[in-house]
Amino acid sequence: MAVVIALLTSGLLQAEPCLLSSDVKSLHDCASVLEDRKHEFSFDTIDAESFSLPLTKSKQVGYTQSAWWIRLQLKAEKNRPFSGTLIVAPQGCDRVDVRLRSSTGSERTLQLGDNVPFYEREVDSRLQSLRVHLEPAETLDVMLRYETTNGLRFPLQIYEEHAYERHNANERLLYGIYFGILFVMLLYNAVLFLVVRDAVSVDYLNFLVAFALGVTSLTGFAYEYFWPDAVYWTDRAHPFFMNIALFFGIRFIQRYIDSARYAHLLDLILSALRYVALLLAIVSIGPYVRTVSILTQAVVLLSVPVIFVVSVRGLMLKVRPARYLMTAWVLLLSGAFLYALASVGALPYNLFTSNMLLFGSAVDMLIFSLGLGERYSQLRVTAREYEMQLEIARNLQKSLLPALPESVGSTELQYAFRPMHLVGGDFLDILDTKDGLGLFICDVSGHGIGASLLSSMVKMSLSGFWSDCADRPAEVIGRLYRSLTDKFGDQYLTACAVWIDRQSGRLRYARAGHEEPILLRADGSIEYLNAPGTILHTMFYVPATPEEITMSAGDTLLLFTDGLTQALNRQLVSFGEAELIPLLLEHRSESLSLLCERIVRRLDAFTDHDFRDDLALLIYRHN
Known about the structure:
Structural class: alpha+beta
Radius of gyration: 40 Å
Strand content: 15-25%
Shape: elongated
Distance between the termini: 133 Å
């Protein structure tokens, strides 16, 4: 009875040959499988081993350290030969050893897999394939041994030549459309970035590039077209690029929906996951490919629900970008769900269902691109509004600049004012009275609207008391400080106030941390007005110390901000006195308007028009 049972069992485990009678045929039902946990079998010893039967269509091993054996027989019809292509493994399989034994007595062995340079493959295909030719009624025994660090599944399909060419053309058309969509979206977002300069789009562009390279690595096209001889790299390219895509993709989502603002804890979790992905990308270059691939899937599985919850919370709080994120996420998960159904046999596993993840990701990225397009439109509207506000502020600041007093001709007084942006923090003013002339210049820290607002406050404050104490410059600075004490915030300013008795030439001045005014005597000598004084700031203040000198006919006084002396050229050398003093000496006899113009032009040439600070310059010549 034991012998009979053994014989019956042996017969049940012996697969019937696959009759090759159609254009395309799945071989799962007539294939036997064996797991070799210890890698102890070879082609010489495997024939006697018992194979389980059959290998179902949904058979997927996943990540395994075992070697796997597949055995099957192919048989041609009695009245016609068969020539075709047998697909034995997908892209990403490291090694497939093949032995073919014909009923005619011939035998051949070959090796497939990503460990073989692409152009040494028997079939120029991203899949692991081999040629099969059978004469009428000929039988071919096929023995396959698989070994890989990636997830393993067994496609096991055979195509007649014309059917394989049709399948190959359809597949390349499908992937061509997919990569075409990726390319168009990459180009679209790159153009939008160049127009809007939104930092969020940088992450999205990096994500698109890394994801595209990851998909081409996963599908095998990168091995075929980009690095066909890089055997070591092709096994690591997919986990490397996918982890880079994860890093930039998660950061893009965080910035796109501003998750830190309304989901702080979840945002911290996402930040931790993306840094784990970045670490995995670095580790993937080493020998731990299988471990990195498994951990990468864990990061994906953890990030999916977190992003989903963030999206739901954003929808509840009516965060506009969350709508796009939720729509894209639902479609991507739908694609993954359909792919899973096809993998377990609930749906036909064909060219369409097997690529639902790709379709889902393409639609997902298309929706994100539309969302970014709307974001860019809103940013452009905001930018136009901002430009209008800047123009208003610019006109307002220009209106605050002084006109030259009628009693002082252009031969005696001239100034130049140029903000780094449309508006700036430098400010100057002139007060003409019957007793003398008041000059004031200041420099607010920073640039742009914030600095211009504080300089406007300086003007308003100064106009309230200047005429009362113009001949006492130290008091001007003191009263200015007291009026602005609660308005400095994080900013500060430097200032210099000057009073000139135009009849006697007596000059009083006080400084508050400002650039030292330069007095160019008519005889060519240079004096620096270096009265002590500190910057004006809420945290500390030391009253300015006034000083007095006498000007003679032909003496020229320069008041300026550090946008003149501290301007840098491309070699990071400052304009400073080395450029300014020789220029003053060379042209001291020229009119003030021409001298002012020469200084500005020399500064522009020195910095190559690369303005990094506001500029204010005030020149007085005593007659």
